[in-house]
Amino acid sequence: MSLAVESQTSKQLKRAGLTALTFLLMVVMCVPGLWVVLSAFRPNGEILAKPPIWIPEAPTFDNFRKIFGLGTDQVAIPVGSYFMNSLIIAMTSTVIALAIGMAGGYAFARYRFRGKGSIFLGLMLFRAVPGIALSLPVFIIWSKLGIIDTKIGLIIVYVSLNVPFTIWLIDGFFRQIPLSLSEAAQVDGCTRWQAFWKIEFPLARSGIAAAGVFAFLTSWNEFALASQLTRSTSSKTLPVGLLDFTAQFTIDWAGMCAMAVIIIIPALILTFLVQKHLIAGLTFGGVKG
Amino acid sequence: MPFWRRESATPFLLLTPALLTMAFVVIIPLVFSMYTSFTGYRLVKPDSLYDWVGFRNYARILSDWEFWVPFGRTVLFLTVVLNVEFLLGLGIALLINRITWGQRTLRTIMMFPMMFSPILVGFQFKFLFNDNIGIVNNALQSLGLSDGAIAWLVDAKLAFFSIAIAEIWMSTSVFAILLLAGLFAMPRDPLEAAKVDGCNAWQTFRHITLPFLMPFAYIAMAIRSLDVARAYDIVTVMTDGGPAGRTEILWTLIARVGYDNSRMGMANAMAYVSTILSILFTWYFYRKLVAARRYMGGAQ
To answer: Does A39 touch chain B (CB under 8 A)?
Structure first.
């Protein structure tokens, strides 16, 4: 009896130990990111200090004020414009990619047609073209069309970058909705178009939102194409702007960390909001054939 | 009735916008870049776009060590990081699956690196591995493990190691999350049956859990194969292929030849080689995924 109790406690202890170990592991995994975030709130002098200062002595928002040009000393990098460019480009391309992806995803989920499998595979394979390889011809063609260094030029590229994956995700979400629901609505007198907007779209809405977040983040984070297709403040995005810092004579680590925080915050919020649907979408789209 | 009003035309109409964008941004540029790869096109000499040289660019890169060394390095790099990511991801997924308290929190924490753009990951590790002010060297020195500053991003082997760490940090979560989703979806019965039949933990894992997880591993691989070229961003920030080309990978080489040296024809030839590789890689894992799915369907 006492032996059984003992093994019970040792089992519980083992489990608690395992939990603690896993949490510790995850925290260690986050340290690199957290260190950058922490450094964004420290003066550059503290980052450069020798011997190193581990615990911030003077937490400050100065770095953020500086990169947005609000304080007395300013950084010569127009982070504000880059932020706006990133926002406009990512949002516009997401909305367009979602519209195109919803039509495409619905086609794959609800219709049988010739060449379905190969069209789907073809879309995915074109998505696999490395950004830098694609950037060469796009750069030449966009220059001829005169849309180099414009927001619209980058938006067009990002839409096509996001369409295949948006279709993959949305296809998966529509598939999870029983066909009988929209059929019942059609029996009751809805057209297929009405049945879609009244029945299927509301049910797939959270999944579509997840696909939208995924598309937004892809555009928000993209570098290889943006670095070649943008030149000036009129279209440069945040990831490209981050490299501006390295071109300066002395590297402003604190400024770069602050800019990193600016880039990460929207991503953090959005991913957190849709994480559940995102995981479901990635697995369903792929497994349930 | 015209063909576009027929029911059978609806899916094609729905797909038209998708196919049009893909044609405009991917297919036409790829055809154009194939043409360019057969010319001696240089950005500074627009007329050279019509300077047809046949297979000369391909012949030259395929006989050039300056292409094959970065090529081999890229293959080595991907082999190492993808295997490590898979094993680490599997380990993390199995660990989290066994935990009952705080599982959702752990899952959220695990997604943290996925939110970082590759350019940020590169910057972050450049900062951490900086020989003078980086936390890695500071920690090693404070602990008395090293007296001098270790030049992580200058020494060829160490730089390669640092870049691999950055890449692994960024992408292990993709594997962990998808494999964890697989573990959650796993039916209980076969596991219990195996226990009754006297399988030990390893046998159960090897013959029941792992085969069930493989489709999820292939999804992760297929997703990863779409974005392996993002390693370009990381390398660009961390070392830019340097010092002296010792961390040059295929994609940084393409950018250097195409934009810095403005030899577009040559760069397009290289880009084509890398594009075909990426497509083959994705295709391979997509096929694996379909096969695994069929196997699973048959087993159910």
So the answer is: yes
Number of domains, chain B: 1
Cβ within 8 Å of B, A 228-287: 228, 239, 242-243, 246, 253, 256-257, 260, 263-264, 267-268, 271-272, 275, 279-280, 282-283, 286-287
Type of residue numbered B170: M
pLDDT per residue over B78-109, tens digit each? 999 999 999 999 999 998 888 878 888 888 88
Averaged pLDDT for residues B277-283: 88
Report ipTM for this prediction.
0.85
Domain assignment present for residue B176? The answer is yes
The pair of structure tokens assigned to B44 is: 């500074």
Could you tell me if residue B43 is inside a domain?
A: no
Count CA atoms within 13 Å of residue B49 on its CB side. Answer: 10
Nearest beta carbon to residue A267 from set B107, B115, B118:
B115
- Hey, what domains does chain A have and what are their CATH numbers? 2-63 (no CATH), 79-287 (1.10.3720.10)
pLDDT tops 90 at residue A92: yes
For residue range B224-248, what is the model confidence (pLDDT) as tens digits?
A: 888 888 889 999 888 887 777 888 9
Domain membership flag for residue B122? yes
Compute the distance between CA of residue A242 and CA of residue A261 in angstroms, rounded to an integer.
Answer: 11
Is residue B2 in some structural domain?
no
- Chain B contacts in chain A segment 168-197 (CB below 8 A): none
Q: Which residues of A touch B216 (CB under 8 A)?
A: 283, 287
**Interchain CB distance below 8 Å, A130 and B18:** no
Chain B CB contacts of A47 below 8 Å: 133
What pLDDT shows up at residue B290? 78
CATH of the domain at B214: 1.10.3720.10
Confidence at B299, pLDDT banded by 50, 70, 90: very low
What pLDDT score does A232 carry?
86
Residue by residue, DSSP assigns A164-188 as HHHHHHHHHHHHTS-HHHHHHHHHT
Residue B260: which domain range?
A: 64-299
Tally of CB atoms within 10 A around A104: 28
- Cα–Cα dist B110/B61, whole Å: 42
